[in-house]
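Subject: mismatched residue count in predicted assembly?

I count 728 residues in my input, but I want to confirm that the predicted structure covers every chain. Input:
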Amino acid sequence: MRFVAAKACAGSRARAGALYIGGNSAAPIETPSLMISTLKGLPAFISRDHLGDLPAPDSHLLHVSPIHFLDCPATKTICTIGGLHQMVGLHDHFFIASPRDSLESLPESDGTNKLGASFETPSGRQLVKPSAYMEMITSLMPNLWASMADEVPAWVSDKRNKTSVDRTLRWLDECINLDLEGGKNVLGFVVGGSSIEERKRCATEVAARNVSGFWIGGFGLGESIEERPALLHAVTDSLPEEKLRLVSGLSLPGVDIIQPFLSTEIAA
Amino acid sequence: MVNSIIYLSMFFNLFLGTIKGLTNIQLEEIGCQLILGNTYHLALRPGAELIDELGGLHKFMNWKRALLTDSGGFQMVSLLHLADITEQGVTFQSPVDGKPMLLTPEESIQIQNKIGADIIMALDDVVKTTITGPRIEEAMYRTLRWIDRCISEFGLINVFLCLLHFDDIHGVKLNASVDYWAAHKRPDVQNLFGIVQGGLDPVLRDICVRGLVDRDLPGMVASKANLTSYWDSYAIGGLVGGEDKDSFWRVVAQCTASLPEDKPRYVMALSFLPDAFYYLAMKNTFQGVGYPLDIVVCSALGADMYDCVYPTRTARFGTALVPEGILKLKNQAMANDERPIDLTCSCMVCKNYTRAYLHGLVTKDAMGSQLLSYHNLSYMMRLSKNLHTSIVEGRFPEFVRGFLQTQFPKGDVPEWVCNAMEVAGIDISSCCTPLTSWHDQPSFDTQDQQAGVVSETFIN
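Triage response: the counts match. Full output below for your records.
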């Protein structure tokens, strides 16, 4: 994967870029770009034989949540099948993994503790430890993956918010340590809630690690629309310009790839 | 009988403007030539007028191959309140506003004209339950009178031999004199099929058949009402013994024996009942028409065309069709099985997905139903094609034997199948262990067993 941040838009933080995802697509995906949401690796309403009808290579960018695979298949089975791309028959597509999605894997900060992050899933609330998460990442082999995070809503106490940043940084290090490739394809997760200082702190700390890019999260959890630009800028100002930035839960200038919040619901 | 008839075995699928879970391109890919539309549902929504205005159903749904519509009468009787049949037609309560309405044979034809399918059905006097007695006879004669009204409404003068044949990709032509009937070549031609009534009474059926034959219609339909009326009693009444399957094949055999050899015979069944009935029936392990085994038997008896919702419906319950019977993908044993559904199948699903992955999808994600529907329909298309090719190449009996041996490796072919094959003139003694009486056959009251189906031991 190669990302080139190209032209910045004068007078704004927006930037155009190109994402080279390799494989059979020689042409890059132009950023800002959207990821297509998937359920267990397949877009919810198009089977793999129809994906080719969508514009390429832009439609090759897919989001996957490893949490969808908690029940089955077993990680061992996914390994023997050959990983996510092989399992869903999408060898030319570019999967970016992160735990949260807007439908079947919703962060539940009340259930999150020092051991792991909690998610509301169709099979109930699940606590996911970094070790289990990395086991799934290793078996799925997505092209890029976000580290685990403690995403909290905007109304939590300052203390809780600070804890969420500490945990997220700790889990980033843990995930990189557990990664067989040493974090080659990791996207460092940035949180910080509604606090400008915490956002800056988290972003700076994550940027200090050797990551391929950044996953900017903790949005769409109760903060007001007016707050968002300042919070996002606090983050992006602390990040190196040349690396890829993804965001979930919203869409604002200064980011390269967006995880749509409601795309599957709208499509339905 | 079989050796002298060269027919296409045609399987097609039910829809309401689309097939549940498959796109047109996917249908074309798996070789589907003909799909069936419910006139009743289409007339309700989006409405026959709208379809007509937009250029007919082919254009509306962008389907370039053939379409078939039924008369609309059956749903009215089975789905609506206060439906009643008079000489005039079917009176029913409008589902929209509750007003009394009337569907006449003429109107049914008019609606089907607007929809514009290639094959249309005459409105028949539908006898819903297994009634015996004078009502059956009344229904039979009325059906013939209604056929006449349909014909005069339809203006049927030219009769085309309606032998279907594959499109250019397959390049198989059965008969040089056959008109190639596809919507894009003959947009203005529809072919009217008549439905054989008469219950189980061979005399009445005979009269009906002769009546239809005299009218020289392009095709005939084995009385769906009687077949599905059995279905009803199964769905509601629960477990029934093997003799009902026995009656079913005899009805088909009688019809095909008396219907003209040069016209297609279409066994309609299982088209019209909602999922709830189906689930109930499945719980009671009902043996309805539509299983691959039924289609092979009916083909042996001389039927040509079939439709049913079974492949897609069973897909939504997580069941895949395989040569050995069925595969229940939600079974825990599938969770780590890295094989495709069927190693002999070359459909998109079997080429790309493992049982383990599908196990995680079925009954939980819509995509699971879609993928299974795709495979199941592929399987049915493949079965149809194999039936056809084996007949054309003169090795149909061998094909049947191979089919039965795969489905019943222990030789426990059900007695009704043996009886039917005897009448059909196919020797299947090599497939059967010495016959036990039907009393000794495995009980069908567990969810794991169905007629002609191997249980989970297969997967090991």
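The two ends of chain A are 32 Å apart (CA to CA). Marking this ticket as 'not a bug'.
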